[in-house]
Amino acid sequence: MADSSTTALSALDGRMFIDGQRTGSRSGATFEAVDPATGRVFAQVALGDKSDVDAAVAAARKAVEQGWAGLPPVRRVRLLNRLAGLLRERTRELAELESLDVGKPLRQAEDDVAAAAGYFEYFAGVADKVFGSSIPLGQGFVDFTLREPLGISAQIVPWNYPLRLASRGIAPALAAGNAVVAKPAAEAGLSIVRLAELAVEAGLPAGVFNVVTGGRETGAALASHPGINHITFTGSVPTGVAIMKAAADNVVPVTLELGGKSPNLVFVDADLERAAASSASTLMQNAAQTCTAPTRLLLERTAHDRFVDMLAKRIRAIRLGRGLDNPDMGPVVSERQMHRVLGYITAG
User: Fold this and answer.
1) What is the dihedral of CA 54, 203, 85, 328, to 10 degrees?
2) Which of 141, 166, 261, 299 would be 157's cystine partner, CB 3.0–4.6 Å?
3) What span, in angstroms and rounded, lies between the C-alpha atoms of 27 and 31?
4) 335: CATH
5) Domain check: are 64 and 151 in the same one?
């Protein structure tokens, strides 16, 4: 990584994004963003609390009521396509930020930016095709449905694929005419704040897309806020349960993607070399911090020993390093996560 790029990334803006502009937390509190490869602090991130969540929800509500929800869908199509174009233009910048924040290899971060742009392009194509139904009920009568925006969508985003997974939920919410308040994970999520900046650059009105940074308390304040109308969350089962309980108090619908244990099934008549290569790459991608990582292998008994040898050989050949240097695998996202992984190894 060239010195100029490293210098640019060493003094990043860690403020949140509310009502169309960067802002610090109302309390003035911050927390450190740490490069997981070096342990060096590269940003002081605003530590939001309930008052910041209140401000973001108020800005989102104002945007909805002042015309975003009623904007002709064809105009939302243009805005989301413009945002997708900005993502593709800024691929290098966003990939470097994601690599630094999460620790993943730069080329994997570039794939995440491309996926994020793809989500906005896809849902831009949906925005003007959200139709209701008309049902004739006899002469002079017709029954019809009209699909309307819910209002404010809270997006609580995990740290392993911040930009990719945020875009997957934010793009359809915006396409349908909703405003968004996003809350990234404390471990990594600065790319989401940058995404909100680019959304304004693309032409989205202030307040349509807000980002409140912080920890668990920040997320809890957003999930339980009476002013939101929908919650999207990706993360652990216990946190998903807590969010669903908080949403129930306000009768708010939720969309949850929670944990899983993904198996690979390998039979003896398979191309074992190819299967081992695929298992190794999909398992170890992003330092194995992926909800769809094949953490279980179900092997036909007669293929077991050969396959395990092939897989072990592939994994032993993986080059480790700092994500920005584009190795095969970077570090896990944090020291806490490292100790968690080491604990699993110790436990056998």
Assistant:
1) -20
2) 166
3) 12
4) 3.40.309.10
5) yes
Tell me which residue of 265, 243, 263 sits closest to 254, measured CA to CA.
243
Q: What is the pLDDT of residues 259-293, one digit of tens each?
A: 777 889 999 999 999 999 999 999 999 999 998 88
Cα gap 31→155, rounded to integer Å? 21
User: Residue 313 is encoded by which pair of tokens?
Assistant: 């050989």
In this structure, are residues 326 and 3 in contact, taking their beta carbons and an 8 Å threshold?
no
Low-confidence residues of the chain: pLDDT under 70: 1-10
pLDDT value at residue 151: 97
- DSSP H helix total and E strand total for the chain: 12, 13
Strands 296-299 and 263-266: parallel
- The whole-angstrom separation of Cα 218 and Cα 224 is 10
Question: What percentage of the chain's residues is helix, strand, coil (to nearest 5)?
Answer: 50, 15, 35
pLDDT score at 98:
97
Apex 25 CA angle, 24 and 30, nearest 5: 90
CA distance 237 to 245: 12
Residue 255 DSSP label = E
Q: Which pair of structure tokens corresponds to residue 89?
A: 């233009």
Whether residue 217 is found in the same domain as residue 304: no
CA distance 278 to 311: 9
Please state at what angle helix 91-102 crosses helix 162-175, rounded to 10 degrees: 120
Residues facing residue 66 across a β-bridge = none
By annotation, the residues acting in catalysis are 257, 291
In a domain, 329, yes or no: yes
Query: What end-to-end distance do the CA atoms of the chain give, in Å?
Result: 37
Pairing outcome for strands 16-18 and 21-23: antiparallel
Residue 122 identity (one-letter amino acid): Y
Q: How many CB atoms lie within 10 A of CB 338?
A: 14
Tell me which residue of 86, 121, 54, 98 sits closest to 333, measured CA to CA: 98
Range of the domain at 270: 263-347
- Are both 253 and 306 inside the same structural domain? no
